[in-house]
């Protein structure tokens, strides 16, 4: 019995990177396993451990889960898509 008991429950999320975050990671998407109860901020902390260049966006980053902006404290669920969206500029002057 003890062999089948799991100490921690993990969930699988998908992460999308935009603009400078994409450049910092060197890709647009990745799969990430996190523990149950992980927040959007907690997942970002884990990502900065894997990709330290992401940390420069921490103070101005917007996080979205399943295409909706969320607070950093939003709890993720198995299969969620977390998007890391740094500030961007552009467009045209009128």
Describe the structure.
It is a single chain. With 94 residues, the protein is α+β, with helices and mostly antiparallel strands. 19% of the residues lie in helices and 29% in strands. The longest helix is centred in the middle third of the chain and has 11 residues, at 40-50. The N and C termini lie far apart (69 Å).
Task: Give the gist of this structure.
The protein is an alpha+beta fold. It has helices at 19-25, 40-50; strands spanning 10-17, 29-35, 62-65, 68-70, 81-85.
What is the secondary structure topology, with strand pairs?
Blueprint: E1 10-17, H1 19-25, E2 29-35, H2 40-50, E3 62-65, E4 68-70, E5 81-85
Parallel strand pairs: 1-5
Antiparallel strand pairs: 1-2, 3-4, 3-5
Structural descriptors:
94 residues; alpha+beta; Ubiquitin-like (UB roll); five-stranded mixed sheet; 5 strands; 19% helix; 29% strand; globular
Topology as a string of helices (H) and strands (E): EHEHEEE
Shape: globular
CATH architecture: Roll
Question: Could you name the CATH topology?
Answer: Ubiquitin-like (UB roll)
Radius of gyration over alpha carbons?
Answer: 15 Å
Strand order of the largest sheet: 2-1-5-3-4
Give the amount of beta strand, in percent.
25-35%
Largest sheet: 5 strands, mixed
Which regions have little confidence, pLDDT < 50, spanning 5+ residues? none
End-to-end C-alpha gap? 69 Å
How many DSSP E strands? 5
CATH class (first level) name: Alpha Beta
The structure class reads alpha+beta
Task: Work out the helicity level.
Answer: 10-25%
Tally of individual domains: 1
Helix segment tally: 2
CATH-level-4 superfamily name: Beta-grasp domain
Mean pLDDT: 90
